[in-house]
Amino acid sequence: MHSSSTSYATNILDRDDEDTYAENRVDHTYHKHVPGRSVRSFLAFFTIRVHIMLKQSLVSLLLTAAAALASPIVARAGHNDFTCRSTTHPNPVVLLHGLGATYYEDINLLDSYLQGLGFCTFSLTYGAEDPGQYVGGLQHVPDSAAQIAAFVRQVQTNTGATKVDLVGHSEGAFQTLYVTKFEAGIKDIVQRVVAIAPPTHGTDFLLYVYALTYLVAPSLSQPLVKGILDTFGCPACADLVQGADVVNQLNDGPIAQPGVSYTIIASKADELVTPVDTAFVREAGVTNVYVQDFCPLDPAGHIDEAYDPNVWALVSSSLEDNIHGPAVCVTTFPGK
User: Fold this and answer.
1) 272-297 burial, b if ≥16 CB within 10 A, otherwise e?
2) How far is residue 206 CA from its own chain's centroid?
3) Which helix (H) or strand (E) is 148 found in, with range?
4) Whether residue 279 has pLDDT greater than 60
5) pLDDT value of position 187
6) Nearest to residue 38, comparing CAs of 48, 30, 49?
7) What domains, with CATH codes, occur in the chain?
8) Is-cis flag, bond preceding 275, omega within 30?
9) Tell me, what's the pLDDT at 228?
10) Within 13 A of 184's CA, how many CA atoms are on the CB side?
11) Which of 24, 176, 210, 225 could share a disulfide with 166, CB 3.0–4.6 Å?
């Protein structure tokens, strides 16, 4: 196990600025999504989208900008630029967001960070009910998996790459494992999987809407809660709990596929994928690490893992087959 310096830089975005940003974000989301779809929008907003608050810390942005100064990537035309070629990292990297997020939130700063280091990155919003829906990752995991697989094939074909790497957070991390195992031909074109906080064996916290439903009505049975979630537009929430069919399917036989390198990154402070070690895949050829193995004081919770520069360093080094932490560990506010 490699370890890095335990010196820390403190996030200098103050809480007043966070609150202002969050209020603006909430107001924008409410007015864009609630009218005409009040029940679904209310649930999606309050149980899934509030977590987007303030992960774009000044420290994170500075690290991204610094990395971009030395980027060996040929100039990009924009999002999903299939003309992108890297002189140092030939594999395109497909990034997959978490439940209730989009390609431009949740994994967007990690995306920019990897671009700055010379990776050609690609992403999509999967699992949305319709193209205009403000959040993704809500549809059944197998349905989203088919959509992701088609995108991975498109990236490989359009870039001419021999292999593709997958990076995901939360549900997106689960999808990196699921798609590689079950979608036809994907294991043959994927070289590396880096999964950040995947609910690999399901979670006992019941994930977002599921958790909220149980807090309101803890006596409800799992099938009844599943029906409620399906009705209000979050089938994936029920797919990712302990004992769910999708989770059992993933864990029926080896998860790791021959020829694919796997890295699972978790946080000891994760409050949604619990118990926290259920993220790990205990199989040959899989590297399982906590971010605290490298940055012991890192307080990152489940959502924060997507925005944590310490995690970013683990991701980028895993994509280089030489996992290590950052030279200087950075902290953000705990438990987010």
Assistant:
1) bbbebbbbbbeeeebbbbbbbbbbee
2) 17
3) helix 141-159
4) yes
5) 98
6) 30
7) 58-204+239-331 (3.40.50.1820)
8) yes
9) 52
10) 0
11) 176
